[in-house]
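Q: Structure tokens for this one, please.
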Amino acid sequence: MRVVMHLVSALAWVSGLITDAKEHKTKLVMAGIAGHFITEFVINPPSNQRFV
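A: Here is the predicted structure, written as tokens:
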């Protein structure tokens, strides 16, 4: 489930980049990047991360 949410988040970020390239909307890309990191933080908070 975590992988699926990560892929959805990544796809949303990429689609934001593509839209920005077409329409030059920097704010949309920033929102996409922020949304990606927020989603990643919620799904896998630092307390759950294991560094190998």
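A few notes: The helical segments are 2-23, 26-43. The chain has one domain: 2-41.
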